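In full, the data.
>
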Amino acid sequence: MHESLQKAVTKVLSPLVRLLLRHGVSHAEFANWAKQAYVTEASEHFGIKGKSPTVSRMAIMTGINRKEVKRIRELPSEVGTGVSKFNRAVRVVTGWLQDQEFQNDRGKPDVLRYGDPEDSFNQLVKRYGGDVPARAMLDELKRVGTVDHQEDKVTLQHAGYVPHQSESALLDIFALSATDLLTTLEHNLHKTDQRRLQMSVAYDDVTTEGREHFRKLSAKQGMALLKVLDKSLAGFDKGTTSSVTGEGSHRIGLGVYWIEDISSQDELAAASDKEDKPT
């Protein structure tokens, strides 16, 4: 069992290690982060009868000595992960894409006016951004390259909240999306009788022409699917629709992502050409 687990986890860690190496993070620094994750997960999910485990029990479970467990548990909680800000920015952009009030005659996102409380961009943020001020939301969308702001006009640059000019925003999305996917995969391994939706389509010998065809098709169909799902789900979200009532407060959703191995033939060829060129 441990051999299979080791192979699976090593493979999962590969893209994470690439990210860490690009950012100059050493193995020792990553090991410290991993210890924090071990202690956090043990504390939050492996207690008995709803109670957090003792330091001694956590030391036994994690293999980290009691002194180190105690030190990690006393570290200040992390704040400002960007997840809340990300979620609200997504809601605003999605509302811009979906709500007819903020679209032009062709059903495309309209150029909105920003300034007075009654201006269209301000109203968009008021409707979909919760308690975030319009100025703060505009600054965030500008920071990541999602909108263009000229005088009193705001133009949507991309069909979704996809940061193009902020590495920190991209890392927020990386953390959120990777955690969501791994949480579902771990759940399906642990609770085989209550499996969550987990599907994908991939082939391993596709031509370059086929890759480009599928890239365009998947982008178009994926966006169409997410728009339908977003419209349906928003109707049950108390934070988005003020008239919604009912019990529970769940974070649920569905992710769509592109699959392509880093070792694709085109990338290998490009890397080879780069190595052959004189410097």
Notes: Residues 2-78 form one domain. The chain has a mean pLDDT of 85. The first helix runs from residue 2 to 22. Strands lie at 112-113, 147-150, 153-156.
